[in-house]
Design a protein that fits this description.
By secondary structure, the protein is an alpha/beta fold. It contains two helices and five strands.
């Protein structure tokens, strides 16, 4: 089981990038049509996804911009550690 978790972590690391590209709303939505990402992440005002070694992001979209996209789900997450 530990090997499967480590393999998943390595695969995820291979798909991440330190390069970020900021887009205006119109260009971001056009890129979504081209890239067809499975997940668009949402944190506060920012929506973003990884594509071709880059993180594409915008501060100008709303969750409602993605309602008509069947394969795209905007989700909100936090990197704050939960304490029990």
């Amino acid at each position: 089981m530990a090997t499967a978790g480590a393999t998943t972590a390595v695969m995820a690391a291979q798909h991440t990038s330190s390069y970020r590209v900021k887009f205006k709303r119109k260009e971001f939505l056009e890129l979504v049509e081209i890239a067809k990402p499975k997940i668009i992440y949402h944190r506060k005002r920012m929506h973003f996804f990884a594509f071709d070694g880059f993180v594409m992001y915008t501060f100008e979209c709303e969750d409602s911009d993605f309602l008509d996209k069947k394969v795209i789900h905007a989700i909100e997450f936090s990197n704050v550690a939960w304490e029990e």
